[in-house]
């Protein structure tokens, strides 16, 4: 078996942000469905949460290449 354990670590670390993004947008859709007038307030918060969750995935990818 060839490769590095860092690649396996990145694959496992991508699960967390993937689940996080799903939960963020599920909560956003639920909030907008309950109160459509709150869409303007909820949308920037959802995109900020999405950006922070994706930053974790990108950080994990960078670390996988650094320790390769």
Automatic annotation (TrEMBL):
| Transmembrane segments annotated in the record for this chain | 7-29, 41-67
Q: Where in the cell is it found?
A: Cell membrane; Membrane
| Domain of life, source organism | Bacteria
The cellular component terms of Gene Ontology attached to this UniProt record, alphabetical and capped at eight, are: plasma membrane; proton-transporting ATP synthase complex; proton-transporting two-sector ATPase complex, proton-transporting domain
Q: What is its main location?
A: membrane
| Residues the record marks as site: Reversibly protonated during proton transport | 54
Which residues belong to any copy of the V-ATPase proteolipid subunit C-like domain? 6-66
Its annotated function is as follows:
F(1)F(0) ATP synthase produces ATP from ADP in the presence of a proton or sodium gradient. F-type ATPases consist of two structural domains, F(1) containing the extramembraneous catalytic core and F(0) containing the membrane proton channel, linked together by a central stalk and a peripheral stalk. During catalysis, ATP synthesis in the catalytic domain of F(1) is coupled via a rotary mechanism of the central stalk subunits to proton translocation.
| PANTHER family per record | ATP SYNTHASE LIPID-BINDING PROTEIN, MITOCHONDRIAL, ATPASE PROTEIN 9
Name recorded for this polypeptide: ATP synthase subunit c
Q: Which organism is it from?
A: Motilibacter peucedani
Protein's gene:
atpE
């Amino acid at each position: 078996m060839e490769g590095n354990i860092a690649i396996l670590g990145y694959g496992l670390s991508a699960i967390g942000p993937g689940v996080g993004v799903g939960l963020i947008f599920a909560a956003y859709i639920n909030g907008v469905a309950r109160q459509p007038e709150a869409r303007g307030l909820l949308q920037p918060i959802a995109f900020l949460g999405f950006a922070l969750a994706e930053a974790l995935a990108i950080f994990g990818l960078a670390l996988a290449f650094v320790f390769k």
